[in-house]
Amino acid sequence: IKKKIVDAAPELKPIVDEYYGIRILNQEFVETLISFIISQNSNIPRIRKTVREISKTYGKLIDEADGACSFPDIEALDSISEQDYRNLKTGFRAAYLRDAVNRLISGEIDENELKNMDFRTAKNTLMTIKGVGDKVANCVLLFGLGFRNAFPVDVWIKRIMEELYFGRDTDKTVIENYAADKFGELGGYAQQYLFIYAKNK
Treating both helix axes as pointing N-terminal to C-terminal, what angle do 134-144 and 29-38 enclose, rounded to 10 degrees? Predict the structure, then answer.
């Protein structure tokens, strides 16, 4: 994987060499979807706090020593109203979370069906959920559904891709398409190295 990334982008070799142990997590689909909806226009401490509060309130206690709770299953998530989500400080995302859970419960959004779709169809299907845009869909595809070609473009990736390859302000869709051509099925791995490269710079 690393050799193919470096062959496609020799400029990433120092980062690939330095950060040998990068891994892409195989996360549980529902938790990944809900967490990335929560992540919109937020920061990591706030995201972590919100996910922890949802787990503490609606999940199951799994460690009495430190009070750790599991992320709620879909039935528990279905018991949370839009106002409940607002009470958990999710703000405008409350309506998006409620819509996502409704679509999961109804079977309109199905994990196994998504995994068996081609990338574009799976992405478009996820983007029918209120509030799920390009970046959230790509994150869910990469971390929760095993699509290793997904290439989420956040502010860091946009900046470093513009610096390395475009030299100007560039639309995120153009960046994503360029990455698909450049990295192909390894887009998600390349994205992780590019993210570290951007953060380090």
Answer: 150
